[in-house]
Amino acid sequence: MTTANFKPQNALVWAEIPVTNLENAIAFYGAVFQYDLEKMDMGPNMIALIPTADGQGVAANIYEGKPAKDGSGATLHLAVPDNVEDAATRFKAAGGEVLAGDPVVIPAGRFVYGIDPDGNSIGLFEGN
Question: Candidates 3.40.50.300, 3.10.180.10, 3.20.19.10, 3.40.50.1950; correct CATH number of 14-127?
Answer without folding.
Answer: 3.10.180.10
